[in-house]
Amino acid sequence: MNDSEHAAPPTRAANARSWWALVALCGAVLLVMVDNTIVNVALPTISRDLGASNSGLQWVVDAYTLTFAGLLLTAGHFADRFGRRRLLVIGVVGFAGVSVLAAESSTLAQLIATRAGLGLFAAMVFPATLAILIGLFPDLKERAIAVGIWAGTSGIAVAIGPVLGGWLLEHYSWSAVFWINLPIAAAVLAGIAAVVPSGGMAQPGPFDLAGAVTSIAGVALLVYTLIEGPNHGWGSLQTIAGFIGAATILALFVLRELRTGHPILNVRLFTNRAFSVASGLIAVAFFSLFGFIFLITQYFQAVKGYGPLEAGLHTLPFAVVMAVSSPLAMMLARVLGPGRVAALGSAIMASGFALVLLADRDASYWGLIVWSMSLMAMGLAFVQGPATNIIMNSLSPQQTGAGSAVNDVTRELGGTLGVAVLGSVLSSVYTTQLGNQLDGSGLPVEAVEASKASVMAGVQVANAIPGPGGAQFLATIQDAFVAGLHSSVIVAVVAAGLVAPVAWFTLRGKQLGDSVVAEPGPEDVLAKA
Question: Which of 162, 512, 518, 522 has the most neighbouring CB atoms within 10 Å?
Fold first, then answer.
């Protein structure tokens, strides 16, 4: 029997057990979200040890986020059908097991494959946490607080990943960033067993296999095309065919979901204005954030010369500002309305990214970089909690499983595309500028090509050249990377900057007891769906 069938819906305000259950659920969120970024600070070391190119490093990051995002809908669907706590436990146990395989990887291909495996089990964990949380807190005021804590944990986990990874690399090898998952997973499992109830209602009907396959294939092909675009050429037949193929598959997915009686994703949810705009805000926020973290950890090590721990510690202000800003965002949402606060957050993030355009290889950390990261963190906090609350309060109780999965998909898919797009822009600009500077310079062809493939390889080559020549070569490498960083950040500024006014003028709903009451519009279709 489905374990969710034993659960009775709460009939009064959440008790102390519910808040302890929230702690356990946030621990599960911490486990899977830390892995989004903990590996970033290890990328230069992985590049040296496993001979990874820029494209290879993108795959180390995106193999996780791509699998995570691609399987979230399927996993959320399974959670509704077979029990949310049951799938949560399977996900945590599997995550711990695959972490051992990742730690023991001896080749780049093995590491990428195990990162994909981690993404598979992370997809089982994440949607279950939010769906269970919604059931634990029927009182809308308490739910808003709980969602704010959940969202804040997610953002803080993303930020502390590089710090934890840097500390582990300072004392151990890069494999330690995977071994650390085991004690965290053990603590999470103990908490789930002690205080987390089963939750959700059985969802009868056939499994939407066609929807699952087309959603996974479409997202995978899109991200693959973006990552390999700089290698094949943006105007090449492979790249154009990849984009056309991805668009075709995703269109087939939408058509399938509209026609089936048991969709893996009810795409009609997006006729709800509040739901769709809030989902877009979260997607753009994580698109910009994940792409930036992928780049800034390399900037700290390749350009500023920080060690892994030092690089991680220099991202710590992000987590601090995020922790302070998350409760402030939920309080402001009660005064201004969650839509306005989320729109303001996107604008604040855009301003933080814009500050990075002033940074060069000699930029002051305390004079410039820390302020840009602080604005990004505050902006993310203002987007995450209010936008998540809008999404979940836009839905009926029967749609919380699907809604939490969509909320998670937008977050992970946005992050996956952020690493792919911003990383590809960086690679294109970096490789082109370096080629213009070094081709025909008289340096060995092998050294030039290695430097084009990876900025850390370029730093190694420069350090091997004695005297002023080596210093000049290093400056050329760093300037090319900074040029690529600036081009990438422009994409983030435009994305976050454009979505802010859209959200400001479309999310005009007022708040009533922590639920969103919007003006009549397309979202009313949801009640009939």
Answer: 162
Q: Which amino acid is at 447?
A: A
Give yes or no for a contact between 417 and 226, defined as CB atoms under 8 angstroms apart.
yes
Decide: pTM greater than 0.90.
no
What tens digit of pLDDT does each residue of 166-208 get?
Answer: 888 888 888 898 999 999 999 999 999 988 887 555 555 677 8
> Percent of the chain having pLDDT more than 90?
23
Q: SS3 of 357, please?
A: coil
Residue 175 carries which DSSP code?
A: T
Cα 410–Cα 411–Cα 415 angle in degrees, nearest 5: 110
User: Does 4 have pLDDT greater than 50?
Assistant: no
Q: Give the mean model confidence (pLDDT) for residues 441-459.
A: 75
246 exposed, middle or buried (CB, 10 Å; 0-12, 13-18, 19+)?
Answer: buried
Instruction: Answer whether 413's CB lies under 8 Å from 284's CB.
Output: no
Q: Return d(Cα 193, Cα 177) in angstroms, integer.
A: 26
Q: State residue 208 phi and psi, 5-degree precision.
A: -85, 75
Q: Is 98's pLDDT higher than 60?
A: yes
Q: What is the DSSP letter of 267?
A: G
- 171 C-beta neighbours (distance < 10 Å), count: 9
User: How far is residue 297's CA from residue 76's CA, in Å, rounded to a whole number?
Assistant: 32
First to last CA, the chain: 28
pLDDT at site 495:
93
Within 8 A by CB and 6+ apart from 165, the residues are 37, 38, 39, 40, 41, 42, 177, 308, 312
Question: CA 112, CA 454: separation in Å to the nearest integer?
Answer: 17
CA angle 162, 36, 74 (to 5 degrees): 170
Q: Are 516 and 274 in contact (CB under 8 A)?
A: yes
Supply the DSSP string of 449-488, one letter for each residue. HHHHH-HHHHHHHHHHS-HHHHHHHHHHHHHHHHHHHHHH
DSSP string, 182-249: HHHHHHHHHHHHHHPPP------S---HHHHHHHHHHHHHHHHHHHHHHHH-TTSHHHHHHHHHHHHH
More confident residue, 289 or 154: 289
Q: What is the DSSP letter of 509?
A: P
Q: Are 31 and 125 in contact (CB under 8 A)?
A: yes
Long-range contacts of 327-335 (CB under 8 A, 24+ apart): 327/148, 327/152, 328/381, 329/148, 329/381, 329/382, 329/384, 329/385, 329/386, 330/144, 330/145, 330/148, 330/385, 330/386, 330/389, 332/382, 333/144, 333/385, 333/386, 333/389, 333/511, 334/144, 334/511, 334/514
Map residue 7 onto helix, strand or coil.
Answer: coil
Q: Is residue 377 within 8 Å of residue 318, measured between CB atoms?
A: yes
